[in-house]
Amino acid sequence: MTDLAPHELRVLLAVGSERGFSAAAVALGMTQSAVSHSVRTSERKLGAVLFDRGRTGATPTAAGERALGHARRVLRLLEVMGAEVRGAETGTVAAGPLRIAAFRSAALHLLPRALERLTARHPEITPEVRIVREVGRGTAGEVLDGRADLGIATIGTTSPVPPQLVGGVLVEEGYSLVHPAGHAAPRSLPLVDWTENCTSYTREWWAAQDWLPAATVEAEDDGAVLSMVSSGFGMAVMPELSLVGAPPSVQITDLGPDRPTRSVGYVTTPELAGSLAVRALIRELRAARQPV
Questions:
Q1: Angle, CA of 265, 268 and 269, to the nearest 5°
Q2: For 129, 191, 192, 290, which has the most beta carbons within 10 A of its beta carbon?
Q3: pLDDT tens across 51-92, in order?
Q4: Cα–Cα distance for residue pair 155/160, rounded to 1 Å
Q5: CA–CA separation, 141 vs 146, rounded Å?
Q6: pLDDT-based confidence at 292, cuts 50/70/90?
Q7: Rounded to an integer, what distance in angstroms lies between the CA atom of residue 184 and that of residue 292?
Q8: Which residues on adjacent β-strands are paired with residue 253?
């Protein structure tokens, strides 16, 4: 197989992003025929159809989605290579963006201190943080697809680091019962939940608790859950990161030594794990972690 050139990868990404050959041609400043020829050449080199063509445009096939993820990662590595070479020339950490995907509570309560330390030590690095729901492929999927250099993810036995990535645990957080302060019988309240709350391991613990009813309300995120509990609407079982800064109208009750826990860590690609900016961020994340 003949390797694809960077400009061919950029054409594939443009078609995937614009969902059409004409729109990709406009975005790239090329003719439509040149874009079509480049995609056909790439498909021939890879031995797979990358886009389904139709009247509504071009939709990536399963092979195309895989190719687009690799294309983003390859082009990102080329950017990192250039930045690190220039950094070696000047004796500094590579300048430029550092793309981070994180779920909501990690972005609010785990990242800020690390990013403050990172940018103080390395002002040439520009963190770019995206909030991603930690469901389905979650933040790890963003890294796999080349949209993030590092993801803050829930990891563990039931949600392991994908085999294509590397990672490590930053925080082991326990779950607590959260209910309106001063309520005489908090366990009689409705249970409020949200999709990102638990791994399958935690759900198994929930199922074994006779006193926990099925959730009757599912909120959008942990902030909405905390607001509902604070207003006296119900009770919830929540991890520690979600409880940072909880209002005094909320009471947090320990669930004992058998309480479930959740591992929060980082994931990145093996190639980017060796990059100076990613290594610097991981160091600051480890230095900034503390019991919450």
A1: 150
A2: 192
A3: 999 888 899 999 999 999 999 999 999 998 888 888 777 766
A4: 5
A5: 9
A6: very low
A7: 27
A8: 177
Could you give the CA distance from residue 45 to residue 71 in angstroms, rounded to a whole number? 14
- Spatial distance between the Cα atoms of 213 and 237, rounded to a whole number of angstroms: 11
pTM above 0.90, yes or no: no
Residues 125/95, Cβ–Cβ less than 8 Å: yes
CATH superfamily of the domain spanning 93-171+263-288: Periplasmic binding protein-like II (3.40.190.10)
Residues in the chain: 292
Give the span between the Cα atoms of 238 and 236, in whole angstroms. Answer: 6
Q: Which residue has 């025929």 as its token pair?
A: 33
In the chain, where the domains are located = 1-91, 93-171+263-288, 174-259
Mean pLDDT computed over every residue of the chain: 89
Closest CA to 238 of 197, 180, 291: 197
